[in-house]
Amino acid sequence: MYRAGDIVTARVRLSEGSETKNRFALVLYEQLGNVVIAGITSNPYAKGIPLTKKEGMPKDSVIKLNYLFTVTEDTLFGPIFKLGKERKKQVSGEMSKLLGGMQD
Question: N or C: which end of the chain has fewer CB within 10 A?
């Protein structure tokens, strides 16, 4: 079982084709065997929430909250590490901002 804040490796489909790629991801939540994850990139110019080597990543990276997937548990490996309390608050705050329009 995966929990919000787990950093995992996920096998995700890149596009409409059948090609898959393993990439780091942040678990947002798990429900009924499905896991919603946010992709993580090592592109330093990407917009998102920074995630550093000091926190546990192999390279300084960025959590991309605009790059979400729903996957099954069998496509995840890890957890590699868990986000710290402050970083979890930051992710939660940014997700609240993004979903703020749902309240209108």
Answer: C
Residue ranges of the alpha helices (H) in 1-104?
A: 85-99
The domain that holds 75 is classified in CATH as 2.30.30.110
Helix-, strand-, coil-residue percentages of the chain, each rounded to 5: 25, 50, 30
Beta bridge partners of 71: 35
Does residue 1 sit within a domain? Answer: no
Q: What is the pLDDT of residues 7-32, one digit of tens each?
A: 999 998 766 667 888 999 999 999 99
Distance CA 47, CA 45 (A): 7
What is the number of domains present in the chain? Answer: 1
Rounded distance, CA 83 to CA 94, Å? 15
8 A C-beta contact, residue 35 and residue 76: yes
Neighbour tally for 32: CB within 10 Å: 5
User: What tokens were used for 8?
Assistant: 């995992």
